[in-house]
Every structure is written in structure tokens, then in C-alpha cells.
Design a protein that fits this description.
alpha+beta; four-stranded antiparallel sheet; about 20% strand; binds guanosine-5'-diphosphate
């Protein structure tokens, strides 16, 4: 059993598609081990995306991630990390495969509906970044 972190980003929360995205996870064998809706501040979003701090889009990314509430989830299941990445689709929704979350719900490369951990090591660190042990069930 693996665990991975997902974030339903502000664009998808504003569109009212939290339930539709959670359904993609549950319908594809990913169990919700934790879930909370939060408003990130610039410090928390900046720290979360620190790996991108030298990229030209870092400022825009932090601004976008703090533009409204997000829903943060821990997904659990067999091959959860890779399965979630498959369900998400490519970073740029224009390149995302048909039927993926980003193809169906995202508008642009910055407002791209969801985040998903891209390795098991990152997943463990990202889960710890947002959740205490008691919150992951
Ligand atoms: P992901 O793992 O598919 O989310 O993609 P990355 O780790 O490469 O990038 C992290 C996030 O940064 C993406 O989900 C986008 O929200 C954002 N991002 C990536 N590339 C760009 C870009 O060229 N412009 C902007 N504005 N945002 C970007």
C-alpha cells in the first residue's frame, strides 16, 4: 500500500468540482486517508513549492496557490503515487490525455486543477508537510 499527496487547486475549488475530482480517485481504487480544505498563505505555499523557487513562474505559482482555498488529500492504494499521476494527466492541460482530471477540469498550465506527488520520497515529505500523524487514517 502506498500513500501520496493530492491538492485540488484554487481553480478547481472555485469551479465547484471538488466532488467530481474526489470521485475520480475513489472510482479508481484510491482511498481517502485524509482530506481538508485550507487557505494557504504565501509562506506555506512558497515553502511547499521551494523546489521551484528559481523557476521564472515561481511568483505566479505562489500567487495562484494562495488565490483561494485548496483541498489537500492523502490518497492510499496500490501504486497510489503513479496511479494519481496517471489520473491527473500532463502538467499542461492542452497536452493532457483525454479523460484525465487536467484535460477535463483545467484551463491552463498554471491553473491546472490538481497537484500530485511525483515520487514516493516527495509523497512522504509532502504528507508530513500538511498533516500530523493523527490526521492520516
Ligand atoms: P506537476 O508535477 O505536473 O504539477 O508539474 P511541475 O512539478 O513541473 O510544476 C509544478 C506546478 O508549477 C505545475 O503544476 C503548474 O501549476 C506550475 N507550472 C509549471 N510550469 C509552469 C509554467 O511554465 N508557467 C506557470 N505559470 N506555471 C507553471
Amino acid at each position: 500500500m502506498e500513500q501520496t499527496l493530492s491538492i485540488i487547486k484554487p481553480d478547481a475549488v472555485k469551479k465547484g468540482v471538488i466532488g467530481k475530482i474526489v470521485d475520480r480517485f475513489e472510482s479508481n481504487g484510491l482511498r481517502i486517508a485524509a482530506m481538508k480544505k485550507v487557505q494557504l498563505d504565501a509562506s506555506k505555499a512558497g515553502d511547499f513549492y521551494a523546489v521551484h523557487k528559481d523557476r521564472p513562474f515561481y511568483g505566479e505559482l505562489v500567487e495562484f496557490m494562495t488565490s483561494g482555498p485548496v483541498v489537500i488529500l492523502v490518497l492510499e492504494g496500490e501504486d497510489a503515487m503513479a496511479k494519481n499521476r496517471d489520473l491527473m494527466g500532463a502538467t499542461n492541460p492542452k497536452e493532457a490525455a483525454k479523460g484525465t482530471i487536467r484535460a477535463d477540469f483545467a484551463d491552463s498550465i498554471d491553473a491546472n486543477a490538481v497537484h500530485g506527488s511525483d515520487s514516493l520520497e516527495n509523497a512522504a515529505n509532502e504528507i508530513k508537510f500538511f498533516f500530523s500523524k493523527e490526521e492520516v487514517i
